[in-house]
Structures are given as C-alpha cells and as structure tokens.
Design brief:
It is elongated, with a radius of gyration of 16 Å. The chain has about 80 residues and is mostly helical. Helix content is about 65%, strand content about 0%. The protein is built from 3 helices and no strands.
C-alpha cells in the first residue's frame, strides 16, 4: 500500500510519461494519464485525511507525515526548516 506522498510522486511520474507518449502513442498516453489521475486522487484523499482534525479528537498531521509531504512536493517549509529534519 502506498502512502499519500508516494501516490503524489507516482502521479507526477506517470503524468510526465503520459506527456512523452502523447504524440507517438495516444492510447498509451491516455492510459498513463488515467492511472496518474487515480494516484493524484489517492494523494489528495490522503493529505486531506491527515492534514487537519475533523472534530478536535484527531491530532491532524504528524511531524513525520508533514515532512513526507514536504519532501514529496519539493515544497519549502514555512518555518524555515528542511523536509529532511
């Protein structure tokens, strides 16, 4: 089972492959794009599920989950830290 950040990276990788196939093999490009969309949807669900408490009972995103998302998206943390801390 892939984590949210892994789904995000898979979606990016597959979308890039679909782009490269677009002119030479449109059917393969469409199939890759469809699988990329599934991974993007799963990534979206994962980040939404862990990003904020629903009713105050859940802790929200853990520091480990946050670092994994920062690393997966190549974003720079707002607090000046690094994704690998």
């Amino acid at each position: 089972m892939a984590s949210g950040p892994q789904h995000y990276r898979n979606a990016e990788r597959l979308a890039e492959q679909a782009r490269r196939f677009a002119t030479g093999d449109p059917a393969a490009a469409a199939a890759l794009a469809a699988v990329a969309q599934v991974h993007a949807t799963l990534a979206s669900v994962a980040v939404t599920a862990v990003s904020a408490p629903v009713d105050g009972a859940e802790p929200g995103m853990t520091p480990t989950e946050w670092r994994a998302w920062v690393k997966a998206t190549a974003a720079e943390p707002a607090d000046g830290g690094t994704a690998d801390e």
